[in-house]
Amino acid sequence: MLSILISGGLIMVPIGLCALAATVIIVERLMFYASVRKGQRDILPRIASSVDKGHYDEALAICDAVESPLSRLMKTGISYREFSDAAIKEAVMNQANREIPKLERFLSSLGTIATVSTLLGLLGTVTGNIRAFGVLGAGASMGDPAVLASSIAEALVTTAAGLVVSIPAVIFYNYFIAETNRMITEMESSVSDLVLVLARGKRRDEV
To answer: What is the distance between the alpha carbons of residues 30 and 176, in angstroms, rounded to a whole number?
Structure first.
């Protein structure tokens, strides 16, 4: 296997770096989204229950105990509970705008890696073919077939390596984009639900 990779030439170095970077990003994002899903599970009903009882400190403690974008949105909304519903929603949406880049972190890099690794594989194919035709043009293939074979190997190996890196990167990129969009939709829905819960709590407090 090592000899096959070496036969790909210098182009294999940046392709290998792309593979390493893509692996790190994919693992980090999988762990991040898993932790977010775990943290956001049933958090809104728990907070709503505390707010309905007027236990705002308890609701804030629930938010502090859970490390997730949604918990920070909930905390912002509760902190602004004395303001109007419009002000609460604006404050929470501003916080959501600060959370979205965290959800999208490294995704543009992963998309770039998916594209660049394919292009690097294509570049290796082109350079390998150039070398192969150069060998044929020089008439050296009859004397030393190994030279021609190494050039062809470079062309084929780099193409395969680029695709091996690019295909998983594209799959995970699309998965992460879908997961991010789903979480953003959930946050938007939760913002509206939280405003209703806080409005209900304020009406109860005024009675």
So the answer is: 8
pLDDT at residue number 141: 45
Going from N- to C-terminal start, the domains of the chain cover: 2-197
| Residue 89 DSSP symbol | H
Residues of the chain with pLDDT under 50: 2, 4, 140-141, 143
CA distance from start to end of the chain: 76
Rounded Cα distance, 197 and 73, in Å:
14
How far apart are the C-alpha atoms of 77 and 81, rounded to whole Å? 6
Cα–Cα distance, 116 to 166 (Å, whole number):
8
Q: What are phi and psi of 140, to 5 degrees?
A: -85, -10
Render pLDDT for 24-55 as a digit per residue (tens, 0 to 9): 999 999 999 888 887 677 777 888 788 777 78
Question: Which amino acid appears at position 85 of this protein?
Answer: D
DSSP-based three-state secondary structure for 45: helix
